[in-house]
Amino acid sequence: MANGANIELALFAPYNEVVELIGDFSGWKPLAMSRGDDGWWRVSVELSDGDHLYKFRVKSLSYFAMGETLDVFDPYALHVTNDEHENSIVRVKDGQRVWTEYVWRHDDVPLPQNEELVIYELFVGDFGGTNDRRGVFTDVIARLDSLQDLGINCIELMPVKFFPGQGWGYNLRSLFAVASVYGSADELCQLVDECHARGIRVVIDGVYNHADSESPLAKIAYGYWYYEQNPDQPEMQWGPKFNYGHFDENLGIFPARKYVIESIPHRRDPLRRDPRHRQLRRPPRADERRVRPGRKAQTLPDRRRARARGSGHHGLPRRPHGGGVAVLTGGSLQSGPDRAVERRRVARRSRGFSRGARSREEWLRIRGPLRELHREP
Asked: In CA terms, which of 73, 117, 137, 199 is 20 to 30 Å from 87?
């Protein structure tokens, strides 16, 4: 390709026998890749500036497709197309791979401390949508002033990572890619930046208990990242369950832990790091660092009561539980996946406040157990 730059594309699949790269830059003809001792398959391709589509073609080690050839998008890609093809997107600018082109403008605005937070839980699809159109990131930006007028200084986004269909977003196919149904990675950056401009911190729901059954990892080698036999009760099985106890003695890693842990700083320092090579583009702001144990956000004060969710225009089903809460920019609330049942019970009680708890004292009694569940170890 004329005037192109060599860009490396890679897939972590340590025990698959065949991995090839396919993309629009090769006419979707497979390109051979080589596997290193670290389990990564790599190949360099010459790419011009712009966006390029690609996937990996793997010989599956999953129990349901053993030995079959499957095409998967890059589990570490930041961009995935919002169509039935679900192609990964690699962006090249000035001969270099870039993850986002957004220019941050409001890093100097002071943000509230953890004990001062007034949190509004927000479902992008409903909050900015109408009866006939699903909301997107830019719709939320357009309504931030109204949240600020309510006294909200922190929004908790329901999952905004890549998921299929039109649901709540708790069936993630990737912990890295932005939910393209809501917009681009640049638009998510803009949403966070515009929140910061108004002194609003941003929290994001993280799903670390399970994944969608069509996720790339499930197709590459299901048993390497997930339980082949889900240990949860049938009513608590939301999809392939991460097996955090599986240890790869050859590489000295816990594969599920590796993937999830790598996604968390990538989420906290939003889209400003290379998720594969873990190179920070700048130090995290003070408000982006993890909350110290014992520091907890206040509940809504008497003078401010905000409805926690949208009006349900799309008739979506009740969202599944089993994911914790992770922070995108400021603070950290996390919970273990094995505590989903208790979290579900307390969450049902906690929703009473947004529907009109009789007093702040009643709300605090409800909120207390929920705080304990999400407290850091």
From this structure: 137
Q: CB-based contacts of 304: which residues, under 8 Å, 6+ apart?
A: 118, 150, 151, 152
Q: How far apart are CA 204 and CA 233, in angstroms?
A: 27
The neighbouring-strand residues paired with 201 are 154
Alpha helices in 198-300 (DSSP H): 216-225, 255-268
* CATH number for the domain whose boundaries are 5-98: 2.60.40.10
| Pairwise CA distance, residues 139 & 224, whole Å | 39
**Is it the case that residue 365 has pLDDT exceeding 50?**
no
Question: With contact defined as beta carbons under 8 Å apart, do 31 and 41 qualify?
Answer: no
- pLDDT tens-place string over residues 50-108: 999 999 999 999 999 999 999 999 999 999 998 999 999 999 999 999 988 899 999 89
CA dist 80 → 74, 275, 370 (Å) = 8, 15, 34
Polymer length of the chain: 377
DSSP 8-state secondary structure symbol assigned to residue 145: H
**Phi, psi values for residue 221, rounded to 5°:** -160, 85
Query: Nearest CA to 328 among 86, 211, 158?
Result: 158
Report the first-to-last Cα separation within the chain, whole angstroms. Answer: 52
Nearest-10 crossing angle of helices 255-268, 216-225: 130
Give the CA dihedral 279, 53, 84, 31, nearest 10 degrees.
Answer: -100
Find out whether 33 and 42 touch, Cβ atoms under 8 Å.
yes
| Domain 114-212+224-374: CATH class, spelled out | alpha beta
* Residues 209 and 238 sit within 8 Å (Cβ to Cβ): yes
pTM listed for this prediction: 0.72
Q: Among the listed ranges 19-23, 109-113, 189-193, 319-323, which one has the minimum average pLDDT value?
A: 319-323
Which sequence spans correspond to the domains of the chain? 5-98, 114-212+224-374
Contact 183, 25 (CB under 8 A): no
For residue 95, the SS3 value is coil
Q: How far apart are CA 69 and CA 85, in angstroms?
A: 16
- Stretch 132-150: mean pLDDT, rounded? 93
Over residues 207-224, the pLDDT tens digits come to 999 999 999 999 999 999
Confidence band of 161 (pLDDT split at 50, 70, 90):
very high
* Cα–Cα distance for residue pair 187/82, rounded to 1 Å: 15
Percentage of the chain modeled with pLDDT above 90? 60
